[in-house]
Amino acid sequence: MHNFLPIAYFRNQFVPFAEANLSIATHALHYGTGAFGGLRGIPDPQNPDQILLFRLDRHCRRLSSSAKFLHYDLPADKIQGLITEFVRQNKPQASFYIRPLVYTSDLGISPRLHNIEHDFFIYGIELGDYLSPDGVTCRISSWVRQEDRSFPLRGKISGAYITSSLAKTEAVASGFDEAILMNSQGKVCEASGMNIFLVRDGQLITPGFDQDILEGITRDSVLAIARKLGIPVVERAVDKSELFIADEVFLSGTAAKVTPIRQIENYKLPSDRPITEKLRHQLTAITENRDPAYQDWITAIPIY
Known about the structure:
Number of domains: 2
Oligomer: single chain
Number of strands: 17
CATH architecture of the largest domain: Alpha-Beta Barrel
CATH class of the largest domain: Alpha Beta
Structural class: alpha+beta
Largest sheet: 9 strands, mixed
Number of helices: 7
Radius of gyration: 19 Å
CATH topology of the largest domain: D-amino Acid Aminotransferase, Chain A, domain 2
Helix content: 25-40%
Strand content: 25-35%
C-alpha cells in the first residue's frame, strides 16, 4: 500500500493527487521519452514547523540537464521553486520521497523529440527504508548496462530503466534482493537504481563516470564525506572478482541511502563494516541538519 502525498503538481497547477492523470496515448508512455529525479525529505527533528530537503539544488540542476536530452528547456530554479511550493502544500508528517518528471506530453505515435509538446509534474510518497539497513544480497545480472554511445547516460532518462527492471526482477526471482550490472566492457557498473562502492585495505573504491554509471548525487555526497574524513578515495574500473574479496561493499542512492551488501552470489562478505557505518552515520547526521559543516546541502522549508 502506497501512501502518496495528497497534492501533486500537474499541468501548471497544484491539484489533488487522484486528479493528476495522463491519457493512455501520451507519447512518453510509449517511447520512454521522459526524465525524472528523486529526492528525500524529512520533518526537521529539531523543528516540527519545517521540512528538510537534501541537496535540492543539485537534484534540480540534474533534472534540468536531463530535460535537455528531450529538447526541453526547464530551468533549475523553476524546478526548485515548484518543489518548494509542493512541500508547503503537502506539509508531510513523515519521511518522504519526491518524484519530479519531465516528459513528452503529445498524444501521438511517432518516436521523435522535435515538434512535440513537453510537460512537467511532481508527486510524492511516504518512504522509509527502501532496502534493509542490515544489508542485502546481490547477484550479478545477466543484463548489461547501456553504453553512453547508444543512450544518454548523463541524464536520468526513464527509458533506461527497462534494463534496471529486468535486472531487479531477475535477482528477486532467483532469491536475491538486488542486482549488480556489468557494463559492456565486463566491468562492474551499478545496481538496478544505485551506485556501488567497495572497500579494500582501507581504500574506498567506486566505478568512475567512464564506466557508464549514473552521476549519482548520493554517490557524490559519499565521496565528499569520505575525503573530508580522510578516507582514501579511488574512482576506477572495478573487476567482478574484486567484489568477492572486498572488505566491505555497499550501495548508495537517494532511496537506498547507504545500504551494506552482505552477500554477492555465493560469497558472504564480512559483517564488520567500519567505513560503511562511518559514512552512513555521517550521511544521516547531515540529512537531519546536525552537521554545520554541510548546512549548504540542506534546504529548510517552513510549512506553518
